[in-house]
Amino acid sequence: MELRHLRYFCVVAEELNFTCAAERLHMSQPPLSRQIKQLEQEVGAELFERTSRGLRLTPSGVFFQQHALQILEKVDVTIEATRHMARSKRVLFGIGFVPSVFYGQLPMLVRDLRRMDNVELTLAELTTVQQIQALKAGRIDMGFGRLRIDDPDVEQEILFDEPLIAALSSGHPLEGTTPSCEELARYPLILFPAKPRPSLADMVLGIFRRQRLKVEVVQEANEVQTALSLVASGIGITLVPEQVKRVQRDGITYVALADKSITAPVICSRRRGEKPSPLMQEANAILEVLVENRRTGRYP
Question: Which InterPro entries does the protein's record reference (predicted)?
Answer without folding.
Answer: LysR_HTH_N, LysR_subst-bd, WH-like_DNA-bd_sf, WH_DNA-bd_sf
